[in-house]
Amino acid sequence: MSKPWFEHYGDHIPHEIDADRYPNVVAMLDEAAGKYGDQPAYASFGATLDYSTVRKLGLCFAAYLQHRLGVVKGDRVAVMLPNMMAFPVALQGIVRAGAVQVNVNPMYTARELEHQLVDADVETIVVFAGSTPTLAEVLERTPVKNVIVAELDNFVGRGLPGPPRAPGLESAPGFADVVAEGAALEFAAPDIGSDDLIFLQYTGGTTGLSKGAMLTHRNLMANVLQFEAFAGDNINYGNEVVITAIPMYHIFALMVNTLSYHHFGGTSVLITNPADMPAFVEEWSKWPVTVFTGVNTLYNGLLHTPGFDALDFSRLSLSVGGGAPVQKAVSDKWKSVTGKHIKEGYGLSETSPVLTMNPFGMREFLSSIGIPWPSTDVSLRDEDGREVAVGEEGELCARGPQVMKGYWRRDDATAEVTTDDGYFRTGDVAVMEPNGFFRIVDRKKDMILVSGFNVFPNEIEAIVAALDGVLECACVGVPDERTGEAVKLYVVKSDPDLTAEAVEQHCRDSLTAYKVPKQIVFIDALPKSTVGKILRRELRDR
Description:
The protein has about 550 residues and is of the alpha/beta class. Among the domains are: about 140 residues, Rossmann fold; about 70 residues, Luciferase, Domain 3 (Luciferase, domain 3), CATH 2.30.38; about 90 residues, ANL, C-terminal domain (GMP Synthetase, Chain A, domain 3). Helices cover about 30% and strands about 25% of the residues. Helix 1 crosses helix 2 and helix 10 packs across helix 11. It is globular, with a radius of gyration of 23 Å. The two termini are about 45 Å apart.
C-alpha cells in the first residue's frame, strides 16, 4: 500500500527491510568483530578498545555469568553505569549469555532503584562505584544476590581515580577482575532466538511507577537495519567517529551509538560527564568527529561553551537530535557554527526507539519529526480509534518490527496502548502534512520532557502529596531555555507555614534531579472538571 512519505524515499531507500537478516544481535556483533577486528570500537579517557577485544572481553564476562553466578538464558542482569568502557563490555557479555539487560540510570534515587530491581526480579547487577551508596541503601529489600562493581579505570588502565565504594560493598568483586576470571572458563553459547528479550527498558507510567518495555533481539536488529536503510550511502563504513554523550542506558544512545555505529564499524567516543562542557569540548577536539547525537539542551550547551566554535567540523556529516523537540533557533545556530542543521527524529523506549526521522538529504531545518522509517506504518487516530484526515490532529499510532513485545508482567498496561488492529498508541498527538511529514502538536499523556528524559506528573504528585502540609498538588511542563521543558509544581497547602524550600527538599530526597520541580507555586485551589479531575491543561495555559 502506497504511503505519502514514500515519495521522499526516492530510489535509494527501500520501503521494507529484512528484520530477520540476522538470527539475533549476537550474530550482528560477531559480524562487526570479524569485519573491523583491530579498529577502535570505543574510546574513553585516552584509551581505546578494538572490536576483537570488546568481543573477547564480552565472552569472558558471559562465561563468568554462566559458571560463577549461574546466570541462564532469560535471567535479568542490571547495568547501572554511566558512559564508560565497562558498559559495552558488560552489554556484550550479558547479551551473549542470553540474559536480559536491565538498563538503570546511575543517578537514580533509592526509591527509583528499588522499584526497578524488584519489578525486574534482578539477581545480578553491574554497578558504577559512584552509585554503590544508593544500591547499599536498598540492597536488602531487593532480590539482588550478586553485586559487581565497575570503576572508571576498567579497560582504560590510566590509573584514573574514582569514587569510593559504599560501606558494605567494599568486598564485592570488581568488574575487571570477574572478566579476567572468566577468561579461564569455557563459555557455552545458548540458543538465542530473535523473539527472545535483550533489554528491559524502563519508562514512566501514569501510575507513577515505571514499566519495563520488553525489547527483543528482533526489535533492536530491526531498528538498526531501518537506520541503515534510511541513511543509505550517508554511512561511511569503518570510518565513522561518533560522539556518545547521551547516556548509553538511554534507548536513543543504546540503539544509535552503541549498536548501530558498532554495526557500521565506527568508533564511539564515550563522554562520561557531558555536564563538564569545557572537558567535553576538549575531548571533541581530539577526534575527526563525523556524527553527533544529542538532545536539544546538549546542542545548546555546546554552542554556549567557549572554544566550541573553534573546532574543526570539516568531517561532521550528521547531527541527530532526539529525546525532545529540537528548537529551530538551536539548529540555526548549530548550522552557523558547524555547517550542518540538526536532523530531528522521533521515537520512544517502546519502539526501540526510532519511528520517524527527517531525511538525510534535507539541507534546511524543519520543525517536524520527519517521515516514517522503512517497514514502519504510522496512523493518526481520533478518540474512537478512527483514522483522521490529512492535516487533522490525531494520536500517533505505529506498527513495525521495532515495536516492543509489551510491558514486563503488565498485560493490562500493554492492552491499554495497543489498538484493536495491533498498532502501538504513543500518546502523542500529531498532524500529517500532505507531503507525508509529521508534526507533534500536543501530548495526550501529560509527560514532561526534561533534557530528553521522560518525567511523569503523577510520580511527582504522589511524592509531594505525601508531605505534611500539602492538601493537593499538580505539576505541568513549562518551556525552559536550558532543558527544553522544566517541571512546574502547583501546591494547595493545608499548613500555612509550608515553604517552597521544604517542598523542594522533600522532592530531592525521593526523585532524580531532573524530576525535581524547578518552579513551585502555591495557589488557593486547582482547576478541576465537573467530575473532579485536575485540569493540567488550564495550569499549562497560565
